[in-house]
Amino acid sequence: MTSHTVRAPAARCPDPAARALVAAAFTAIASRYVLARHQIAAAILDADGGVHLGLHVDAMVGRAAVCAEAGALSAARLVTSAELIAVTAVRYPKPTEKAVARIVPPCGLCRELLLDHAPGLQAVVDDGSQAVLAPMAGLLPHKYAGTKWQPTPHPQPWSNSRATTQPPHSS
Which of 68, 116, 139, 146 lies in disulfide reach of 42, CB 3.0 to 4.6 Å? Predict the structure, then answer.
């Protein structure tokens, strides 16, 4: 945990659903940050409006580390079979860095994993001027297609159009 004030990145999101996801991921990592242990949190939105969180769990052996997106995917699948709509990840700054949290794209392994389980998934990405929702397939245009299970069609890669989703339902 940390004691310095860090600026949240949600204001960079014009889309309400993206802003809510980024805020959820930021709140999670702001409360759970531990230097060299937990630096990223992720949030996944499902079609029923549920938000599922995951926390990056680092390890002495890098290959044993678990990404926040994988944790959020697992958390979502524990409680729902609803379609997964959008994902975001937020990186909390180290005490020696500028006190601004950043929206970060999923790593290559997480892109593969997320697309295996949610072919229509969108990701919150920072395009330099703002954070926008973009189809995950556009972040990984040459997806590996294995033979373990029936292939699921993936949407066309992202073009320069800005995709949006509906904000989560309030209950």
Answer: 68
